[in-house]
Amino acid sequence: MGLHRRGSGPKIRVLTGHMEWILTPSDTGGQYCMLETFVPPGGGVPPHQHPDHEAFSVIEGSIEVARMDESGLGWIPASAGDVINVPSDEIHGFRNTTGAPARLLVTGSARLGAFFEEAGVPLAVDAAPSPPTTQDVQRVMAIAQKYGHRFQAREH
Fold first, then answer.
1. What is the pTM of this model?
2. Does 16 fall in a domain?
3. Sign of the Cα pseudo-torsion (79, 64, 142, 136, in order)
4. What residues does 79 pair with on adjacent strands?
5. How far apart, in whole angstroms, are the C-alpha atoms of residue 15 and residue 7?
6. Does 4 reside within a domain?
7. Could you tell me the residue range of the domain that residue 99 belongs to?
8. Is 122 inside any structural domain?
9. What's the CA gap between 103 and 11, in Å, rounded?
10. Residue 113 falls within a domain, yes or no?
11. Number of domains in the chain
12. Cα–Cα distances in angstroms (integers) from residue 117 to residues 74, 78, 122, 143, in the given order
């Protein structure tokens, strides 16, 4: 048994987002992973899909969650206390359209954790956010493709 204290885990940046490891795949014997994700105003992850089951719990703030249904891609609101369950290969994404930051607890497979371990770069506690370079985006997209992630066409 282990105890994780908020703020004590390694922090990573994946493009514009930053996360703190709660449980790495190695912490769970390769079963699953957990990360706290910080979503600044205007931040988020575009609609995508991957073979790994995933769940998001909104801890603080509000986000909009992308999902595909019979009428196409839509965005639904989610706020603190809401949980979003994303089955394997389901199109999903999220964005923060508010003026306040949001925090999510992300739980996923060990394979999804391996993606974050490879795609994430260490983040210093006092680092100021900076926009990703073209090389950053290309590197993360190549890693995402390796793990079976597929992104939807950009919205207009």
1. 0.88
2. yes
3. negative
4. 62
5. 20
6. no
7. 11-151
8. yes
9. 14
10. yes
11. 1
12. 30, 27, 10, 10
Q: How many residues does the chain have?
A: 156
What pLDDT score does 2 carry?
81
Nearest Cα neighbor of 73 from 155, 131, 139, 1 is 155
Give me the residue label for tokens 């590197």: 139
Assign residue 107 the CATH number of its domain. Answer: 2.60.120.10
Beta partners for 60?
103
3-state secondary structure the chain: CCCCCCCCCCEEEECCEEEEEEECHHHHCCCEEEEEEEECCCCEEEEEECCCCEEEEEEECEEEEEEEECCEEEEEEEECCCEEEECCCCCEEEECCCCCCEEEEEEEEHHHHHHHHHHCEECCCCCCCCCCCHHHHHHHHHHHHHCCCEECCCCC
Two structure tokens written together for 150: 């597929």
Compute CA distances 64 → 33, 59, 78, 135, 156, whole Å: 23, 14, 6, 28, 17
Distance from C-alpha of 107 to C-alpha of 57, rounded to nearest angstrom: 8
Mean pLDDT, 10 residues at a time, the chain of 156 residues: 85 87 95 95 92 96 95 96 97 95 96 95 73 88 94 64
